[in-house]
Amino acid sequence: MYTLEDWIRHGDELRRPLLVSQELHESDSLTIVGGGLSGLSIAFRIGSARPDLPIKLLEKSNRLGGVIKTWRQGEWVCDISVNAVRPHPSFWRLVDDLGMEDSFSPSRESASSRWVILQGGKHRLSSSTIFKIGLFGFLRGLINSRKGSPSVYDILRNKEIADAMTLGIVNDKAERVDANFLFPRLTGFGVNPPIGNRKMKKMITDSYPIFIPKKGSLASMDGGMEDIIHGLNDALSEMNNVDIIKEVNEKTPDEVSSAYGVPLSSIIWASGLPNREAGESSLSVFAVGYPKEEVNEVELGYGTLIPDPNIPISGILHESDIHSSDRAPDGHRLFRLMVPHTRWDGDDQTVKDALSNLIGFEAAPVIFQKIGERAIPRYPPGYLSSLLDHQERFSYAGWTASGVSVTHVVDEAERISELFMQ
Ligand SMILES: Cc1cc2nc3c(=O)[nH]c(=O)nc-3n(C[C@H](O)[C@H](O)[C@H](O)COP(=O)(O)OP(=O)(O)OC[C@H]3O[C@@H](n4cnc5c(N)ncnc54)[C@H](O)[C@@H]3O)c2cc1C
User: Fold this and answer.
1) Helix (H) or strand (E) holding 266
2) Which of 38, 72, 236, 333 could be stapled to 270 by a disulfide with Cβ–Cβ 3.0 to 4.6 Å?
3) Which atom, in ligand 1's list, is nearest to the CA of 285?
4) How many domains is the chain built from?
């Protein structure tokens, strides 16, 4: 049912269900609920494709962006949630269509190394990491990957490696995370492309505007990820058919329907389902900066994942190494720490001590600051399959529906908007 052109545009996102009501594209006005990246991208995509269609974007708080926010203090710049984007042409198209190509850059090649702390030692992630899983575990994982609704641990049969991976993506343990939701291609979820993988990949690669991302690379907004939110806001402000309303109080699609006198079928709920059963996990984010000479022993790289539940820090990201743009004053380096609340006693000193132990020496940071708290939705095994049962009269989008990363959210916005162009 999808054409080759659809596959080139969206790739494996087509394996995921689009949770839209049958009548959505026939609506004579739209109400999008949620002013995070999802709601903003949907409003931008549909609003551009259909300037005749009045769109209301409703946001509960007094700011747009949802979990996306960039913290700044002097020359220190650190994202509180997403900091970089993995390659997918939909995000490149969004940047291009917003005219922001000059402030979007590939991550630094010199900072591509990633490490994981395994049994107290630091292990560089590479293709040889697979040997840590062992032949039996690997085969078992392969068999499990095709079984119904496996967890990530069912597939990656090494608890530390599997936990490191899921902690890095969703702040949760591998046995509690749906492998279909994270890696639908690996598990064979959904439909398959009409041509082989290699050919498909080449055609997708050739479709990138701006620049073709190198294998294993990421890309980021030069001024921090919040810039994409500003770009979307600026573009929407110039559209006559889009009206943004902040500080709304409606909590359910039914409440929105009656408050605004619109049918449920014209509502796109992009703010996490009310009473979503799966719940969420919370973490705090710290920015830590050092003079370069104090941390020379810390190798240049992307960062380190720490699966050990007895250590309060689950990830150290080398913010000033990764991005092409500066994130720290001259002569300094900036690190971002992810601190899951299930592991932390709430005392900053505990985090400082753990960091000293992890880097192996006691350097004095010139900046050590908690910059925010975030909650990440949980996606238990069976989650993606359960979305197939969505039979509501409203449409449902955003990272609890599309996939956890910004690329899923942005691509989903394009897929929804394409329904209005058919
Ligand atoms: C710590 C952290 C790290 C991350 N790292 C990465 C990464 O490295 N790479 C990556 O690709 N992704 C990452 N992500 C995920 C990425 O940030 C999300 O995929 C994306 O921002 C989700 O956008 P959203 O609009 O779906 O949801 P949200 O940002 O949650 O937005 C939902 C919006 O809806 C509003 N809302 C809620 N209820 C209502 C209501 N009743 N009425 C009106 N408005 C309402 C909220 O106020 C909010 O503004 C990370 C996320 C976190 C938290």
Assistant:
1) none
2) 38
3) 1
4) 3
pLDDT digits (tens, 9 = 90+) for 214-237: 988 999 999 999 999 999 999 999
Same domain for 149 and 271?
A: no
pLDDT for 128: 76
Distance 415 CA to ligand 1 centre (A): 19
**CB-ligand 1 contact for 244 (6 Å cutoff):** no
Query: Does residue 251's CB lie within 6 angstroms of at least one atom of ligand 1?
Result: yes
Q: Is 82 in the pocket of ligand 1 (CB under 6 A)?
A: yes
3-class state of residue 320 by DSSP: helix
341 and 365 housed in the same domain:
yes
Residue to substitute in 33, 62, 63, 67 for testing ligand 1 pocket (most ligand atoms within 8 angstroms of CB): 67
- For residue 42, report the distance from its CA to the centre of ligand 1, in Å: 14
CA 331 to chain centroid: 30
> Does residue 196 form part of some domain?
no
The CATH number that applies at residue 259 is 3.40.50.720
pLDDT tens digits for range 147-183: 888 999 999 988 999 999 999 999 999 999 999 999 9
The verdict on 273 and 385 lying in the same domain is yes
Residue length, the chain? 422
pTM value?
0.97
Q: β-strands 104-106, 76-79: how paired?
A: unpaired
What per-residue confidence (pLDDT) applies to 135? 67
| Nearest atom (ligand 1) to Cα of 399 | 26
Residues 268 and 300 in one domain: no
DSSP string, 24-72: GGG-SSEEEE--BHHHHHHHHHHHHH-TTS-EEEEESSSSSBTT--EEE
Calculate how far, in angstroms, residue 37's C-alpha sits from the geometric centre of ligand 1.
Answer: 7
Q: Is the CB of 36 under 6 A from ligand 1?
A: yes
Q: What is the pLDDT of residues 189-217, one digit of tens each?
A: 999 999 999 999 999 999 999 999 998 89
